[in-house]
Amino acid sequence: MTAGWQLRRVLRLGALALGAAVILIAGCTHAIPLKATMGEPAGVAKVPARVGVYYSSDFRNYQHSGSRAGDRWDFPLGQASVTLFNQTFPMLFAGTESVPNLPPLSGGSQLAAVIEPKIEAFDFTLPFLKTGTYTAEITYRFTLYSPKGDPVASWTVKGSGAQKGQAGFEFARWPGEAADLAMRDAATRFLNGFAEVPEVQPWLRQVKASQPQ
Amino acid sequence: MRRVLIGFLAITVAFSGCASYTSTSAPLPRAGAMPVSQTEGAVEVGADPYTQTERHKSVFGSDLTAAGILPVQVYLQNHGAEKVLVRASDMALELPDGRRVSHAGASAAASKLESIGGVVGATIAFGIIGMLAASSAEDKARAARLEDYKKKELPDTRLAKGESGHGFVYFIPPDGTKNLTAAVLLVRVVKVDEGSSFVTRLPLTGLGAPQQ
Q: Which 3-state string (H, E, C) describes chain B?
């Protein structure tokens, strides 16, 4: 065994150790899968109006990136929220229509209002052990505009979700399921609470009054 | 085997006290006793910004200022006949330079206080058993802190005539915000029956700058 061979061996081992250390320190990035499915809750009174839905590009592309336990966790919340609200709004309004911009709407529009959701806050926690509980909380702000473009109401709805994890190699699944539960919880609260928002009530009375008897 | 068990129990007992959170009640605010208060229409709004480390430690178990969190205790009383609604999500701090800081939820505030230092230390010192014990204690402390911060947070408050409500609103000013002396707390009050609203402005006179 020559001295040169031993030196090469030491250098190779050193390079391997350095590589391992860099990988450990750098951490991983997890792209969180979100399903964004919504079941229709019972007892939601349908609003007899056709309403425009505006998703800004900021909203559509909203991504929450958070660092936890040395890793980066990317939640594509905007994309998932568009999927979620495309299911949610038709559960509340008699008709919906996607609009490309905020009102004032062009002449001839039959929309009674335009609604715009925004993501105001998102937070998540990871347990120290994978078998612990993952939690997520999301706050949406909804703004309802008149066809002329005046804000009628602006309010927030918070949803939370908790999901127990399991041992294994799926790192992104449990935070994703917690976030899905939080989004669904917020959408359910939106549906159940819409008619209770004080600023919405005068608009609702107006909509009902304009219905043919 | 017995030695391992005894070692595990000893480490568990040692670490269960390491990361713990004990909930403590905040003093109940009283009408007319808040450092800042204003009555607009028939609604009295009082505010007590918690800027002192000792008060943070006694009510929230940690120095929130060091984590960049400003808790403001808010007291509301409706003296009028009209029912009103006040939401924490409608509140904001207006900074002297015109920037507005929206309220932060209890979970955002609680998550700023999370730490893995104890778990890392325990892992280095005691290996896998230390990590398991410390992480379990840390999980429990984190859950207890979050629950307590949520309990103390001002909920959406509907007040009929003569009713009052109170709770904390958390703000996380941007890093480097030095001068909050002239910050103004903006509180929107919604008249439930009419659906109209007005904003009460409370200058938080005497509010110190959070230590960065």
A: CHHHHHHHHHHHHHHHCCCCCCCCCCCCCCCCCCCEEEEECCEEEEEEECCCHHHHHHHHCCCCCCCCCEEEEEEEEECCCCCEEECHHHCEEECCCCCEEEEECHHHHHHCCCCCHHHHHHHHHHHHHHHHHHHHHHHHHHHHHHHHHHHHECCCEEECCCCEEEEEEEECCCCCCCCCCCCEEEEEEEECCCCCEEEEEEECCCCCCCCC
